[in-house]
Specification:
The complex is a heterodimer.
Chain A lengths: L1 H5 L6 H39 L2 H4 L6 H9 L3 H18 L16 E2 L3 E10 L2 E8 L5 E7 L10 H12 L8 E6 L6 E6 L3 E2 H7 L6 H20 L2 E2 L8 E3 L5 E3 L6 E2 L19 H4 L8 H16 L9 H12 L45 H10 L10 H5 L61 H11 L1
Parallel strand pairs in A: 1-5
Antiparallel strand pairs in A: 2-3, 3-4, 4-6, 5-6, 7-9, 8-11, 9-10
Helix pairs in contact in A: 2-5, 4-5, 8-10, 10-12, 11-14
Chain B lengths: L1 H6 L8 H5 L2 H4 L4 H21 L4 H14 L13 H15 L6 H11 L29 H21 L9 H12 L4 H14 L6 H4 L2 H16 L8 H4 L4 H24 L9 H17 L1
Helix pairs in contact in B: 4-5, 4-6, 4-7, 5-6, 6-7, 6-8, 7-8, 9-10, 9-12, 10-12, 12-14
Classes of the chains: A alpha+beta, B mainly alpha.
Protein name (chain B): Cyclin domain protein
GO molecular function (chain B): cyclin-dependent protein serine/threonine kinase regulator activity
Organism (chain B): Penicillium angulare
Chain lengths: 474, 298
């Protein structure tokens, strides 16, 4: 900064170069002097800290405040002189304490060679993930390579959003992005994240019995807690599913894979409907709503809840049409009482709803108890709210966290009491998932014909499933 | 938890090292020239953003990214990258992440106009001043071939910026913070609010790099202080800035910095009366060569 300030003094373009030359020499001297000062200061500070007790040490205890102070001043000389003693004096003199902002910096990307790749974990729609070791610290990390080949618009916005949202979302239930590193080519970009031993999908596949009710509460509370933080930061995840929920051997769950995540606003910006893996996709998306909100994440939470209860994905549609019929089979068909306005959604026009369905009660219907035989009434109430067809009826993360289900017995199990499981990701074993992938960016939103959802002929293989919902009436 | 909550309101700041060493100065660019180019680049970004119809928050973020790019020994050098390319890529990148994305073609069309020696309305590109008559379209035509190569450059520089900044594209702006502070202070006069926005936007061009050396809350407080003063509006008694976590020293420095901008820009305009500020690599090289020759001649 000193350089730019001194520049104002230069009026004459002719002698500028000379002055600049002199300035540079002077500055070099200054810098040398400042360096000497700093060394002196450091010695002094060492002495000071040795002499004074904890209270005096507090203001410069961490490296934050002095660093910031240095920045406030113009003159490197003056700064070096009174930097540390000044801040100490001030802290003692002034009764008002000012909030210090977290001091962050930026720097160029490091090279991926700082990590040694150990084994492959999985391949998702947005990149390859492998387990790796930090060469300097020996720590085990997850290394995710972003897919960015042949992108016509430069660096893909999905990758940028993933990095941006992950950097923003520092929360104990969100996977921690340590840094972004580069490979040799311009296109090689890797995200370095904390390594977690499991993902919930693989874990559920391996387990013989589903989680205990107390364990399910602990898991769900953590996921919703993480999501609550994301929503409070105006981040929508848009691809919540069990394979994107990572878990370590200490019972901690973290939300991962932000390849679909993005910031939203109020009013919501235009967003693509092609989000969320099919089995976890909310009905308003399937019906083609071009305006949607955080409620789509809550629907996914409902699907995850159901999957934790039964160990099987709740709604395994073969395609969009089948997915819609599976949903209605579970929830009952929509009507304008429980979901006002659904008729005006683009894909709802082809929907032929049986006439007798409108006779259902207007209040939020419970899901069939037969699907979740071991769930308490409060639990059934929660999952029915989460899987409400009408997005406006679904609870927010806050409402969900406050739900009586989490306060009734059995209480959530303490994380420390969680059983540990053998890690598939850590054991050089490649995982294979049967969950379909999230939709690819840039795809066209399909024109869907839902005429067959309730057992009609067109629309594909939904005949058997379509009949299912009538069973519920009986 | 407090620290995470504050992240949205705070920025990564330049380190003392990044401020005292720039890649350009290592490559022999005189620091006054570097500052001139950086300030002109910020103005170029602002103008391009307006022509692209982007909202000011996107433009301001782009200018901050543009400014960060040149700092530090690991930053970009004016002997390697053209200021105009970095300006265009910053704007394109920021818009891409916003709710108002724009296309490479729109960006490049606008930059072709703004950098045209004949048609540009910018004083530092076209020292003769904006043409009185609307310029002939041929003067700022981007040919298809030109577009293709410019597009590749745009996307390459975008990657370079991301690499240089470690993919940290987060920029918190003081504008909305200032709004809240004004309401807290009970100032309802529109002229003050206008003055605040004026100072905050002008500070984006500051040769003292105010946006990368100070947190947004401090910028907001300084702008309020200045605007209230200029409008003769009396604010509450006492050290009200401390309520917003700004100490007197920082406030004083920022106020001086913001006020000095007008004089700096006026001097720059005089200094570069007859000659364009080099926004392209080759022009930077020839300017340095010109200065070297003049030095030797004396």
């Amino acid at each position: 900064m000193s350089a730019s300030k001194s520049r104002w003094a230069d009026e004459d373009p002719e002698t500028e170069a000379i002055i600049a030359q002199q300035k540079r020499e002077k500055e070099e001297k200054k810098r040398a002097k400042a360096e000497k000062q700093r060394q002196l200061d450091e010695a002094k500070r060492a002495q000071d800290t040795a002499q004074t007790d904890n209270s005096a040490q507090a203001p410069n205890g961490d490296s934050g405040p002095p660093k910031k102070r240095r920045r406030l001043s113009n003159d490197p000389d003056a700064t070096a002189d009174d930097e540390v003693p000044g801040s100490e004096k001030q802290a003692q003199k002034k009764p008002s304490t000012l909030l210090r902002f977290p001091v962050r910096e930026w720097g160029t990307c490091r090279h991926v060679d700082n990590y040694e790749r150990l084994n492959h974990i999985e391949e998702g729609s947005y990149g390859w993930v492998s387990r790796a070791k930090d060469i300097n610290t020996g720590e085990i990390v997850a290394l995710k390579k972003l897919k960015i080949e042949n992108s016509p618009d430069g660096f893909p916005v999905t990758g940028l959003r993933e990095i941006q949202t992950l950097l923003e979302a520092r929360h104990q239930n969100v996977v921690y992005l340590r840094e972004v590193v580069m490979g040799n080519k311009m296109d090689d970009v890797f995200l370095v994240m904390d390594f977690l031993e499991h993902d919930l999908k693989a874990l559920l596949d391996e387990m013989r019995e589903p989680f205990l009710p107390s364990e399910i509460k602990t898991l769900l509370l953590q996921v919703v807690g993480g999501l609550d933080f994301l929503h409070s930061q105006w981040i929508m995840h848009r691809d919540l599913k069990t394979s994107n929920l990572l878990m370590n051997n200490r019972g901690e769950v973290k939300i991962a894979d932000f390849g679909m995540a993005r910031y939203y606003g109020d009013p919501p910006p235009k967003m693509t409907q092609l989000v969320v893996t099919l089995w976890y996709r909310a009905p308003e998306l399937l019906l083609g709503a071009d305006k949607y909100g955080t409620e789509i994440d809550m629907w996914s939470i409902g699907c995850i809840f159901g999957e934790l209860l039964t160990k099987e994905p709740l709604l395994q549609g073969k395609n969009e049409v089948d997915q819609v019929s599976k949903i209605f089979e579970l929830t009952g068909p929509p009507n304008s009482q429980i979901w006002p306005g659904f008729r005006s959604l683009p894909n709802a026009k082809s929907l032929k709803i049986p006439s007798n369905s409108s006779s259902l009660s207007g209040s939020l219907p419970l899901l069939p108890r037969s699907r979740f035989p071991y769930l308490t009434n409060a639990g059934l109430g929660l999952i029915s709210e989460l899987l409400a067809l009408n997005p406006a009826s679904r609870p927010t993360t806050k409402q969900c966290l406050a739900h009586s289900y989490f306060r009734e017995d059995p209480r959530p199990k303490p994380k420390e009491m969680f059983p540990t499981f053998p890690s598939k990701a850590g054991m050089e074993k490649r995982r294979r998932h049967h969950t379909p992938e999230a939709p690819k960016r840039g795809q066209e939103a399909p024109e869907l014909d839902f005429a067959g959802v309730f057992g009609g002929a067109p629309g594909g293989d939904s005949g058997e499933a379509g009949a299912g919902f009538t069973l519920r009436l009986g | 938890m407090a620290a995470t909550g504050l992240k949205q309101l705070s920025n990564a700041l330049a380190t003392p090292d990044q401020l005292s060493n720039s890649s350009s100065s290592i490559d022999g660019v005189p620091s006054d020239l570097e500052t001139s180019i950086r300030v002109a680049g910020a103005q170029l970004t602002q103008t391009a953003g307006v022509l692209l119809g982007l909202s000011q928050d996107i433009i301001a973020q782009a200018i901050v990214i543009f400014t960060r790019f040149w700092l530090g020994a690991d930053g970009g050098s004016l002997r390697i990258y053209s200021a105009k390319d970095v300006s265009a890529a910053s704007l394109y990148l920021t818009a891409k992440l916003s709710f108002q994305p724009t296309s490479p073609r729109s960006v490049l069309n606008v930059y072709t106009l703004l950098l045209s020696q004949d048609a540009s309305p910018l004083w530092f590109v076209n020292p003769r001043g904006a043409p009185a008559q609307p310029p002939a379209p041929e003067k700022y035509l981007l040919t298809e071939g030109g577009y293709q190569s410019a597009r590749l450059t745009l996307l390459r520089i975008e990657s370079v910026i991301l690499r240089t900044l470690g993919f940290d594209t987060h920029v918190a702006l003081p504008h909305t913070i200032a709004w809240t502070y004004l309401q807290t202070l009970g100032v309802a006069r529109p002229a003050v609010a206008r003055g605040v926005v004026k100072h905050l936007n002008a500070a984006l061009l500051s040769p003292q790099l105010l946006y990368v050396t100070h947190q947004p809350n401090a910028l907001a407080v300084a702008a309020i202080y200045l605007a209230a003063r200029e409008e003769g509006v009396k604010l509450v008694d006492g050290n009200w800035w401390e309520v917003f976590d700004v100490d007197r020293e920082e406030l004083g420095f920022l106020v001086v910095g913001m006020r000095s901008l007008e004089g700096y820009l006026r001097r720059e305009r005089q200094l570069w009366q007859t000659q364009a500020i080099p926004m392209v690599l080759e022009d930077v090289d020839s300017e340095i060569e010109r200065r070297r020759m003049m030095d030797e001649g004396e």
